[in-house]
Write a structure and sequence with these properties.
single chain, mainly alpha, 81% helix, 0% strand
Length: 335
C-alpha cells in the first residue's frame, strides 16, 4: 500500500477524505470518552465519590493549560496545512518549531504559577471541605504532567494537518489505555488512593508524548525538527495567535463554567453534588464524539486545499462536513 502524503488531501475525493480522516478521529475521541467514564467508575469504586469530585475540581485547571497547547496547535496547524498546500515546506517547518517553543514557554510558566498559588486556586475551583485534601494531592502531581499533555494536544493537530489521522488516533488511545492500566495497578493493587489516580493520569500523558515524539522523529512525518526552526518568528507567532485565540477562548469559557458550577453546587449540595456534576459532564463528552471527529477531519482538508488555491474543493469540504456532522448522512455515500 502506498504511503499517504499530505498531497493526497488535494487529490482524493472529498467524501472519501472526510471519512478517512473522521473515522479514526471519532474512534480516538470515543476511546478517550470511554476512558473518562471507566476511569470515573474505577476511582469512584476504589477510592470514593469524593475522589471524583476532587478530580472534577482539578480538571478545569489542567484542561485550560492543556488547551493552551491545543490553541497553539490549531493555530499553527492551519498555517501548516495551507503551507503544505502551497508547497511551502519551509514555512511549515518554521511554524512547527515555533509551536514547540511557544507550548513549552507558556505551559511551563503556567505550571509554575499554578504551583505557586495552589492554596488559592483549589478552593476557587470548588475544592472545599472534604474535597480539598484529595484535590490538592491530585492537582500537585497532575500539574507536572500537564506540559506533556499540552505538547501532545499540539502535536496531535499537526499530525492531522499532515493528513495522518490513524497516527493521531493511536496517540489518543495510548494515554487512555495506559491510564486505565495504571489506575488498576496503582489504586487497586498498590492501594495508593488519590496519589495513584494522579500518577496514572500523569503517566498517560507521558506515554502519549513518547508516541507523538516517535512519530515526528520517524519517517512517517513530513515535518523536520531542527534547532534553527525553534527561534520565534514574530509574523508566524502573530498569525498563530490570531487563529488559535478562538480555540483558547472556547476552552477558557469551559474552565470558567466549571469554576462557577463547582462553587454553586458545593454551596447547594456539598461534595456529593459536585461528584454528580462530574459524572454528567463525562457522559456528555461521550455523546458528542462523532461531531468532534468530523470537525477534526475538516480542518486539514480545508486548509490544504485553501493553500493550494483549490477553492471549489474548500467549498465542497465545508458543505460535506456540515452534512455529515448535522444530518448524520451515511458515510458510505462518497464521491
Amino acid at each position: 500500500m502506498a504511503k499517504f502524503t499530505s498531497e493526497e488531501l488535494g487529490k482524493q475525493p472529498i467524501g472519501k477524505l472526510l471519512v478517512g480522516q473522521a473515522v479514526p478521529a471519532s474512534i480516538g475521541i470515543l476511546v478517550m470518552s470511554l476512558n473518562v467514564l471507566v476511569d470515573s467508575i474505577f476511582v469512584g469504586n476504589w477510592i470514593g465519590s469524593i475522589a471524583i469530585a476532587a478530580i472534577n475540581v482539578v480538571l478545569p485547571v489542567s484542561f485550560f493549560i492543556g488547551a493552551l497547547g491545543m490553541s497553539i496547535g490549531v493555530g499553527g496547524s492551519s498555517i501548516i496545512s495551507r503551507a503544505l498546500g502551497a508547497n511551502n515546506k519551509q514555512k511549515a517547518f518554521i511554524t512547527f518549531g515555533n509551536q514547540i517553543t511557544l507550548t513549552l514557554i507558556i505551559t511551563i510558566s503556567m505550571v509554575i504559577v499554578g504551583l505557586t498559588f495552589i492554596e488559592s486556586i483549589i478552593p476557587a475551583f470548588g475544592g472545599k471541605g472534604a474535597i480539598y485534601d484529595p484535590a490538592r494531592i491530585y492537582y500537585t502531581i497532575v500539574l507536572y504532567g500537564v506540559p506533556f499533555l499540552a505538547l501532545c494536544m499540539m502535536g496531535n493537530t499537526v499530525i492531522r494537518a499532515e493528513g495522518k489521522p490513524k497516527f493521531a488516533m493511536i496517540a489518543m488511545i495510548i494515554p487512555s489505555v495506559g491510564n486505565l492500566l495504571m489506575d488498576y495497578l496503582f489504586i487497586y493493587v498498590f492501594d495508593w488512593g488519590m496519589t495513584g489516580a494522579a500518577w496514572a493520569t500523569t503517566i498517560g500523558y507521558v506515554l502519549c508524548f513518547s508516541y507523538v515524539s516517535y512519530f515526528f522523529f520517524s519517517q512517517h512525518s513530513e515535518m523536520k525538527i531542527q534547532w534553527k526552526h525553534l527561534g520565534l518568528d514574530i509574523p508566524v507567532v502573530r498569525e498563530m495567535g490570531s487563529l488559535g485565540f478562538v480555540t483558547l477562548a472556547r476552552q477558557a469559557v469551559v474552565s470558567v463554567i466549571y469554576l462557577i458550577m463547582n462553587n454553586i453546587l458545593f454551596t447547594l449540595g456539598g461534595e456529593a453534588m459536585v461528584a454528580v456534576y462530574a459524572i454528567i459532564g463525562r457522559m456528555l463528552m461521550f455523546a458528542l464524539f462523532p461531531v468532534f471527529g468530523v470537525t477534526q477531519a475538516f480542518l486539514p482538508i480545508a486548509g490544504f486545499n485553501y493553500g493550494a488555491k483549490k477553492y471549489q474543493r474548500v467549498r465542497k469540504t465545508i458543505n460535506t462536513a456540515i452534512s455529515y456532522a448535522s444530518l448524520r448522512l451515511p458515510w458510505y455515500l462518497l464521491d
